[in-house]
Design brief:
alpha/beta, Rossmann fold, 6-stranded parallel β-sheet, 4-stranded parallel β-sheet, 12 strands, 45% helix, 14% strand, disordered N terminus
Length: 368
């Protein structure tokens, strides 16, 4: 289906721009001729209307004719042209979803939540990952827009600081929703976690455990979600009378266990040894735990470790990791319900954008 949509996109009025995008996404522009209902009708010596009705299981067509049409359609490898159908019906019944990556539990769970709601409402979901690249995100959005999807749900890449591609979607009348990684300045529907409150609660918990030198390991602070958790961390320190120490703050370029291991080892050997670490995400907390074991640090006696996200693995490692639970599946469901509401709203000019903020729950385990 993607190849068919991409091909139609390629031969459009923006040929040269689209050719560059297709090359970047490794989609070939040399396609075999698609089989149409005209080809099936000619083979059976019936009208195209008969074939169309048979494929739609219309009661106007006899069972024998339907079976004959389906048999020939399979033999000829016929696939319906969803783009052409969407032009006729003005609805493709397809949602586009763009996430930074699909190999993190939060994103895969969110996608599952989106799909569960979409499927019940008769919609299919096309999933793309930006690989944390702003340029790729922009190109994917352009392809989805030109593929005539009914709506697009986006979680920004770590590089995204320009939102012209989102404004362009709005100007073209394409419903778009932001989830988890959002931009507050754009008037648009959003679904987010209360990251500030979640970070504040988990740092309060560390302070209640007697910790006073609490480090923060996070991602790029240009991302709203990273900044919100950092500000929650800092707010907790200030409110509890603990001086903020910039030397205990580490901003990573990538959300990887490997970088977290290196960052914590450097911090520990620098003479700025913390007695607790709050990590932006569980994947980073796993890196700190691995590094502490290599260094012979006792957890939680010498070092308390807390993450964010409640990835499944955090309850199975030893010691198990304290974290904030994000209902990622439910976030996906909320996002899908909101965008479908916008898609099916008749008076587009009067649609009221909503922001849903989901509160995370503290899960205390052995690491603190």
């Amino acid at each position: 289906m993607l190849a068919e949509i991409a091909h139609d996109f390629y031969v459009g009025s923006n040929r040269f721009k689209n050719e560059k995008i297709l090359k970047h996404l490794n989609v070939t522009s040399t396609m075999k001729k698609s089989i149409t209902i005209k080809d099936i009708a000619k083979k059976l010596n019936v009208s195209t209307a008969t074939v169309s009705r048979a494929l739609r299981n219309s009661s106007e067509i006899s069972k024998e004719t339907k079976l004959a049409v389906i048999k020939i359609a399979k033999e000829m490898h016929y696939h319906p042209n969803l783009l052409a159908r969407s032009l006729i019906k003005k609805s493709s019944k397809v949602l586009g979803v763009v996430v930074p990556t699909i190999n993190r539990q939060f994103w895969s769970n969110s996608i599952s939540g989106i799909e569960s709601v979409a499927y019940k409402k008769g919609y299919k979901v096309m999933i793309f990952q930006s690989a944390e690249s702003y340029q790729k995100e922009v190109e994917i959005v352009e392809i989805l827009a030109n593929s005539m999807v009914d709506g697009i749900l986006i979680a920004f890449s770590k590089e995204t600081q320009n939102y012209d591609h989102i404004e362009d979607l709005k100007e073209r009348g394409i419903p778009v929703l932001l989830f988890e990684r959002v931009c507050d300045s754009i008037p648009i529907s959003k679904v987010t976690t209360d990251d500030f409150l979640g970070a504040k609660r988990i740092v309060n918990h560390l302070i209640e455990r007697g910790k006073k030198r609490i480090a923060f390991i996070g991602g790029p602070l240009s991302l709203t979600v990273c900044m919100d958790r950092f500000l929650g961390y800092k707010s907790s320190l200030v409110e509890n009378g603990i001086p903020f120490d910039q030397n205990l703050v580490i901003e990573l370029s990538e959300f990887t266990t490997e970088l977290s291991v290196i960052a914590f080892k450097n911090l520990w050997s620098s003479g700025e040894s913390p007695d607790a670490v709050f990590c932006f995400a569980d994947i980073l907390a796993l890196g700190v735990l691995a590094a502490s074991k290599e260094l012979g640090i006792k957890v939680p006696e010498d070092l308390a470790i807390a993450g964010f996200g409640n990835d499944d693995i955090t309850k199975y490692v030893s010691p198990s990791i304290t974290t904030m639970s994000q209902p990622s599946f439910e976030i996906g469901q909320l996002a899908a319900k909101l965008i479908l509401k916008e898609i099916n709203f008749e008076e587009k000019d009067e649609f009221e954008y909503k922001t849903e903020i989901v509160k995370p729950d503290l899960i205390v385990r052995e690491s603190t």
